[in-house]
Amino acid sequence: DTGSAAAIPINEVDIAYVTPVTVGTPPQTLMLDLDTGSSDLWVFSSLTPSSQIRGQEIYTPTKSSTSQLLNGHTWSIRYGDGSSSRGTVFTDNFTIGGLEVKSQAVQTAQEVSSSFTQEQSLDGLVGLGFSTLNTVRPSSQLTFFDNARPNLDEEVFTADLKYHATGTYDFGFIDSKKHNGTITYTPVQPSPGYWTHSLSGYSVGSGAFQSSQISGISDTGTTLLYLPTAIVTAYYRQVQGAQNSQYYGGYVFPCASTLPTFTFGIEGARFTIPASYINYTRISPTSTTCYGGLQSSSGLGINIFGDVALKAAFVVFSGTNPPRIGFAPK
Ligand SMILES: Cc1c(C=O)c(-c2nnc3c4c(C[n+]5cc6c(C)n(C)c(C)c6c(Cl)n5)n(C)c(C)c4cnn23)c(C)n1C
After folding, report:
1. 35 is an active site residue
2. In this structure, which topology does domain 3-171 adopt according to CATH?
3. In this predicted model, what pLDDT tens digit does every residue of 234-245 receive, in sequence order?
4. What pTM, to 2 d.p., does this model score?
C-alpha cells in the first residue's frame, strides 16, 4: 500500500502545516498536523467542551459505525511550546491520502489548552515519532505509521514541505519526481522516541563550512530551527541591527536587513536554507522589526530541526531496522 496527501500551510508564514484525513464510517474529514516530534494521534471531538472549540472540525465517535471505545484508557500530553491536551481513546478506521489503517487509536480531546482553541485551522495532531513516546495509559498505542507499516510497499514516509506553498506527505514510497539527485541517509537514534540524528556541520552565507556533529531531532511539528547558541550568534553577527531580545524571546532584526543563507550538512551533503526562510515574520503586522527563523536551542536541552530547515529538502523518514533519515535536494 501507499498514500499521498497535501501538507497545507495554515497561515502566510507557514507556522504549521495541516493534512486532510478521514476518521470513521461514514468518513469524517479533519485537518491534522503531522508531527514527527510526538507520537499521539489526537483530535478535537464531541467530547471537547464547546467553550474550547473555536471553528475546529470535530470527530464524533457516536456517528461512526466502526468506532469502539478503548475502555479505561486516557492520555495527556504537553508540547515544547507549553501547549497541552488530554482525554480518552477510541479506535476507528483512519485514512491519510488513500492509505487506510483499520482500528487506529484515535485520542479524543476532553481538554485542550488555549493555544489549540485559538488555532481554528488545526483540528489535532498525527504523531509520527516512535510509538514509545505515546502517552495513552494503561497501554500505549501505535502510531499511524507503525500500524500501516506491515502493509506499506516500503517502510518509509517522506516529507516535502514547501515555503509559502502546499507540499506533500507520502507513505510507503519514495517519489523520485519530488527530489533532484541522491538521497543522503544518516543513522537515527530511536531512543527515547524522536527522529534523532546528527548534522555534520554548518556554514553561514558564503563562509567556510564548520564540521561538527550537531545532534538534534527532525520535527515537522516545530515551526522554526533551534541550534546551539554559538552557531546562532555566528549567524546573526552577519545581520546589521540584529539582537537577542528578552522581550520577544529570541533574535530579532530590522525587516529590511539582508540576511545570509544558512547551510547544514547531512554526512557529506550540503543543504542551504534561503535567507527568506530565516526572515520569518514581522513581530506585529505594522512593525519593521522581524523575528528570525533560526533561534537558540539553549534552555531546550535539545536541538530542533523544524520546518524552517526541513522545507529546504526532501526528507525520507525510514522505519527500517535500524531506522535512518534521508535528505535530498529538491
Ligand atoms: C521547544 C519548543 C518547541 C517544540 O516543538 C516549540 C514549538 N514550535 N512550534 C510548535 C508547535 C506547533 C506549530 N505551531 C506553532 C505556533 C506558534 C509559535 N504560534 C504563535 C502559533 C499560533 C502556532 C501554531 Cl498554530 N502552531 N504546534 C501545532 C504545536 C502543538 C507545537 C508545539 N511546540 N512548538 C517551541 C516554540 N519551543 C520553544
Report:
1. yes
2. Cathepsin D, subunit A; domain 1 (2.40.70)
3. 999 999 999 999
4. 0.98
